[in-house]
Amino acid sequence: MNSNQLLAHYDSGQCWPQSVSATQGYDINSAYQDALAVRELRLARGEKPRGYKIGFTNRTIWPRYNVFGPIWGTVWHTTLTFCSEAHVFSLTGICQPRIEPEIVFGFKETPKSDATLDDIYHSLEWMAPGFEIVQSHMPNWQFEAADTVADGGLHAHLIVGEKTFVASVAKSAQELHALLAKATATLYRDESLVEVGQGANVLDSPLLALEHFLKELRRCPGSTDIQPGDVVTTGTWTDAYPVVAGASWRSRFSLPAASLAVHFED
Hints:
Number of helices: 8
Shape: globular
Order of helices and strands: HHEHEEEEHEHEEHHEEHEEEE
Oligomer: single chain
Strand content: 25-35%
Number of strands: 14
CATH superfamily: Fumarylacetoacetase-like, C-terminal domain
Structural class: alpha+beta
CATH topology: Fumarylacetoacetate hydrolase, domain 2
CATH class: Alpha Beta
C-alpha cells in the first residue's frame, strides 16, 4: 500500500487487506519512510504535530506481539486530549482499540545535540498520567514490527491527565529515573483490577525510554526533532487491553497527582 492508501485506512477505521511487511524487501526503515510520507499528507490537510508516542518499550509484552524493540509515531492535535477529570471518549473510527496506561512528558525546549540523560531532564517541563488508545489495522493484532511502524506506531489517541512540574517531583535525572523505575501503575476496568505494572517495565524507566527514543528519532532520515511544547508518551506499563463502548477504565500511578479515568462510548 502507498501512503494515500495507508491514510485512507486510518481515516475509515478499516483493517488493511494485507500486511505491508509482506512486500519483498520491506523493513523497519521502509516503514518509517512510509510513516513520514503519511505525516506529510496529514500536514498538507491541516493537521498539526504535537509530539510523539513511543511504543513497545515494555519488554514483558514483546513475545505476545512478536515485536522485540521500541517503535515511534506522531501525535497530532487531532489525536490529543488534555483533561483534569474523568474523560468521555468516543471509539468511532478506531480500528480494534486497546488502552495503555503511560507516563507522558511535556518538553519546554529541544534537547541539545548528543543530549545526556541530564540534558533531557532539564529540557522537560511537566509529566502526567496518560492513556494511549492504540489501534491495529492488521486483523486480530497479528503483525510484524514493520507493520506497526507503517501503521503510525499504532497510535489512535492520547488522553493526558493532570500535569505536574518535573522539577517538583525530582531534582535530577537520576532521582527521576529511580522514582519512575520503582513506581507502579494499577489499572482497573470498571471496578475490577486488571493489572499492576511497573515503571521498570518501560526500558527500565520512562526517562530511559525518552533517551532511547531521542537517539532513534534523530537517526531516522527525514524525521522532525522534538520541538518546545511537544508531548511524548513513553509506553505502556501493562499489557494493552481491548476496550469497548460502555466500559470505564481507571489508572492510578504511585506518583504525585497521577491518576486518570476514561469512559468509552460509541
